[in-house]
Design goal:
There is one protein chain. The protein has 910 residues and is mainly beta. It has a domain at 11-219 and 289-325 and 388-423 and 477-610 and 669-706 and 742-909: Maltoporin, Chain A, CATH 2.40.170. It has a 22-stranded antiparallel barrel. Strands 3-6-7-4-5 form a 5-stranded mixed beta sheet. The chain has a 4-stranded mixed beta sheet with strand order 33-34-38-37. Belongs to the TonB-dependent receptor family. Residues 334-875 form the TonB-dependent receptor-like beta-barrel domain. Its main location: membrane. InterPro entries: Beta-barrel_TonB, Beta-barrel_TonB_sf, Plug_dom, Plug_dom_sf, TonB-dep_rcpt-like.
């Protein structure tokens, strides 16, 4: 029996978007014919030819090595089809802990990530696969199906599928090492990996292992992120009003000003608080990119039990660690006194005018003898250190074989689990702060209390005071479990004049469960933690999914094939089953030309957190208030709807630079639905030249979405449905403090565009050359936030929910080889991004178009059998374009502040 698996593909074929192989699963052919069948991503039918009705991008490990790419996330981010809010390890402020992919710009929950064609367990509460958990040493190629695939793979494949393919039947032993550092002397990357395998006439075994230890950088060490006052970049001042200098109100002081104390030895000598000069530069204490460490092991093997049956298994283990820092915590007793999440906080001392104060008149350090409120950042803590541990374990085993030498079958079982533990930085407790600011603290009424001296500049708070108000650092533990059993069979049904009518049919049973555990400090917004959001525990029911699918490949004519597929899915916790069909066509009117097209429907089941989580709150720093668009002090709006609110200019500015968004789960959510259409052509006018052009369109409805901006607009417009959903300070006459913005099936999207690929290989006297161009034109990205609102086209803009959506994205890669020498140059282009109209104070907020260049050279040393390479990423040390809208100076899901980066590495095979 011929158990050989086919890997040898021409460089041109591998680079093409349309006709690339996805995985080389054993398909048992007749011995005498020796036909090798290959399974194409988006299909479970083995084919003798590399063809698909859907556009597929294939990136090989060789291409990635030549680009200096060493992880799956970085490999995907350079593809033009990946855009929007893609989380990565170069995002700022310590918050990002997993790496994701957002195909076509819609949320990562709409992109299905597979490993060798099988599902992977998610790591966070939304069930997103952490791309850093995929062992890169084992990766042979990455394949991106840029079409809906619910008919083949089920839920989550609305935008498409990312399929990571590992080596099969690998023989040998390989060790590689890499070191890199930025031109600033930070952002070091240290990576070591090995790949080993052997095979016999009965089976094979492969082991891949890698470890990395990568450093981030501090925001203060980059020109564009060193200061919250962005006036030197053309922006505004986003400094925080919660500073190491106490900001006082009440205490019998003039209410037209807020006050501070500059001399700790003379706390009654107050001076007006000047936000322009005293605002806190929190960027001096925050990470620009996180430190991260990974250790991954991947083992695969197979053994031929009989001539017609093969046992196979995959085992993988991943241990990841991420650490970043944010600014020290603080408190504002006036802000909490009006906050809906802490309704009883800092209200002990009301006055005759209806004001609530949090500092007692007789508090030990109160020099005024009158109650008041204080805003104070506890910089004595130092930066808050956020740490995340992520462990993932996967066990997969199965049998596959052939019946009658024509019908391939496979049965597999997989058990997977992931645990993501997030630990927040040092945090003070509101309850303890209340005690420490009370009249009773350090008196006979509360002798164990330690009074807090907030009347003074940095240094006035002692270690003993911090120890008293401190609480355990918040901990959130996310556990995901996935088990599935799947079986399928494929082969010919009947012989037609143009070829065999092929089928594939299968069943799948899956169990998903989420367990989200949070400590008391995280359960109510800032109740025990003085700065941050809240989360509630989730123990979801076991979600049982039963699915059945059928796929047909119909050769109508010698040059015309039709693909038909449908999948039925039933979810135990959603009162709705769904059936999703797909139709595809491949037509070749000329030897040099192929036409293709597909239509399919898709769905995405709501995540278990979206359905079962209780009330949550999050701190929002992307402020939006039509009654004070610039968040200016003493601002008075002339808009009739704002005037009708009776807003007080004295309370118009949100000096804290944040508000609270209330959300939570909704058990009545339904699946999101989509319709996908693709049309394309493939032209090969001459040898070694291929051109592909594909049109794509996605119409998505019943989208689970929450829009705080929409809630604010509706509240301001007087919509009674949203009457109580926006809470303003000062009894409704000040800045926005809280927005109720729950998720529901309320949104829709319409997006479309074109993908273009060109690949050309040629030989010269001075070496062999390969040129590959890949580009995407996003012609439309219409978003409807709710069913009763108008569509808005956000193509070419920055949107808080979707990130940056360039109209044009492209990259070009040129490879040269000659003997033992090689070189690669590539360039990545993003068109300009519009983020806001011009105002009296600022020019229009536009991120300019950019081109970033990278290069690598390599040499194989025959004498010692070692491959050496060195490269530079961001060759010209180009700064990202400036973005004012989100306060981080750019969109760091699209760009990085790392700067020029040097790396070198070696690879030794034995």
């Amino acid at each position: 029996m011929n158990m050989t698996k086919k890997f040898a593909l021409s460089t041109l074929t591998v680079a093409m978007i349309s006709f690339a192989p996805v995985t080389t699963t054993s398909v048992f052919a007749a011995e005498e014919e020796k036909i090798e069948k290959i399974m194409v991503t988006g299909s479970r039918i083995g084919r003798a030819e590399l063809e698909s009705s859907s556009p597929i991008t294939v990136v090989t490990k060789v291409q990635l090595d030549n680009l200096g790419v060493t992880d799956v996330s970085a490999a995907l981010r350079r593809l033009p089809a990946i855009t929007g809010a893609t989380s990565n390890n170069q995002s700022s402020a310590g918050a990002v802990n997993i790496q994701t992919a957002t195909l076509r710009g819609i949320e990562a929950t709409n992109t299905l990530v597979l490993l060798n064609g099988r599902r992977m367990v998610g790591s966070n509460e939304d069930g997103l696969v952490d791309l850093s958990s995929i062992p890169f040493e084992a990766v042979s190629q990455i394949e991106v199906l840029k079409d809906g695939a619910s008919a083949i793979y089920g839920s989550d494949a609305i935008a498409g599928v990312v399929n990571i393919i590992t080596y099969q039947n690998y023989e040998g032993f390989e060790v590689n090492a890499r070191y890199g550092v930025s031109s600033e002397g930070d952002a070091q990357e240290r990576e070591v990996g090995l790949l080993m395998g052997f095979s016999t006439d009965k089976g094979s075994l492969m082991v891949a292992a890698s470890t990395s230890n990568n450093s981030g950088w501090e925001e203060k060490d980059r020109y564009m992120t060193q200061d919250t006052d962005q006036s030197y970049l053309g922006g505004g001042d986003t400094s925080s009003g919660t500073t190491p200098f106490a900001r006082l109100s009440g205490f019998g002081l003039d209410p037209s000003e807020t006050w501070t104390v500059l001399d700790a030895n003379n706390p009654s000598a107050v001076t007006p608080f000047d936000y322009d000069t005293m605002g806190y530069n929190y960027r001096a204490a925050q990470s620009g990119a996180n430190d991260n460490q990974t250790t991954s092991v991947f083992v695969s093997g197979d053994y031929e039990l009989t001539d017609d049956m093969l046992f196979f298994t995959e085992l993988s283990f991943h241990d990841g660690f991420v650490q970043g820092n944010q600014a020290p915590p603080g408190t504002d007793t006036g802000w909490y006194g009006d906050n809906v999440d802490t309704p009883n906080a800092f209200k002990r001392y009301p006055d005759a005018d209806g004001n609530n104060f949090g500092v007692g008149a007789n508090q030990k350090y109160n020099p005024f003898g009158i109650a008041g409120n204080v805003s104070r950042r506890f910089s004595e803590y130092g930066s808050r250190i956020y740490k995340t541990d992520n462990t993932v374990q996967r066990y997969t085993l199965g049998l596959k074989g052939a019946i009658f030498d024509e019908y391939d079958w496979e049965v597999s079982y997989s058990s997977q689990s992931a645990e993501l533990v997030q630990r927040g930085g040092a945090q003070p407790s509101i309850m303890q702060i209340e005690r420490a600011l009370s009249d009773e603290c350090e008196t006979a009424a509360d002798p164990s209390c330690v009074a807090l001296n907030v009347f003074g500049p940095e240094g006035s708070i002692t270690t003993e005071m911090l120890d008293f108000i401190n609480t355990t650092a918040p901990v959130t533990t996310n556990k995901n479990d996935l088990m599935f059993i799947q079986a399928h069979i494929s082969g010919p049904i009947v012989s037609l004049p143009a070829g065999d009518l092929m089928f594939s049919s299968g069943v799948e049973y899956r169990e998903d469960q989420l367990s989200l555990e949070v400590d008391q400090a995280q359960r109510t917004a800032t109740f025990d933690v003085s700065w941050g959001g809240s989360s509630t525990p989730v123990i979801s029911p076991v979600r049982e999914i039963s699915e059945f699918y059928l796929e047909l490949a119909v050769p109508v004519l010698d040059n015309l094939d039709i693909e038909l597929a449908a999948r039925y899915s039933d979810y135990s916790d959603i009162d709705e089953s769904t059936t999703n069909p797909k139709v595809g066509v491949i037509y070749q009117p000329l030897d040099m030309l192929k036409l293709r097209g597909s239509y399919s429907t898709g769905f995405r089941a709501p995540t278990m957190a979206q359905m079962y989580q209780g009330r949550t709150s999050s701190i929002n720093t992307n402020l939006y208030d039509p009654c004070n668009p610039g968040n200016e002090a003493n601002f008075s709006s002339s808009k009739p709807e704002c005037v009708a609110l009776g807003l007080d200019p004295a309370f118009s500015q949100n000096a804290i630079q944040s508000n609270d968004i209330i959300g939570g789960g909704n058990p009545d959510l339904k699946p999101e639905e989509a319709e996908n259409t693709t049309l394309g052509l493939v032209i090969e006018p001459i040898d070694n030249l291929s051109l592909t052009l594909d049109y794509f369109a996605i119409e998505q409805t019943n989208v689970v979405f929450a829009s705080s901006r929409y809630v604010i607009d509706q509240n301001l417009a007087g919509n009674p449905t949203y009457a109580g959903d926006v809470i303003r300070s000062n009894n409704g006459t000040g800045y926005i403090q809280t927005i109720y913005s729950p998720a529901n099936n309320i949104a829709s999207r319409n997006l479309s565009g074109y993908d273009l690929n060109a690949n050309y290989r040629f030989e010269t006297d001075i070496g062999d050359w390969s040129i590959n161009f890949d580009g995407t034109y996003l012609s439309e990205f219409e978003v409807q936030d709710t069913s009763d609102s108008a569509f808005r086209d956000i193509t070419g803009t920055y949107d808080p929910a979707f990130g940056s959506l360039p109209e044009y994205k492209a990259n070009i890669q040129i490879d040269w080889t000659m003997g033992n020498y090689r070189a690669t140059w590539d360039a990545n282009y993003n068109s300009e991004i519009f983020a806001g109209e011009a105002t009296e104070e600022f020019e229009a907020d536009i991120m300019s178009s950019t081109v970033f260049h990278n290069m690598q050279v390599g040499y194989f040393v025959d004498a010692i059998g070692v491959d050496l390479h060195a490269g530079i990423q961001n060759v010209f040390d180009k700064e990202p374009p400036f973005l004012r809208a989100n306060g981080t100076s750019t969109d760091d899901n699209l760009y990085s502040f790392r700067g020029r980066f040097f790396y070198f590495g070696l690879k030794k095979s034995f």
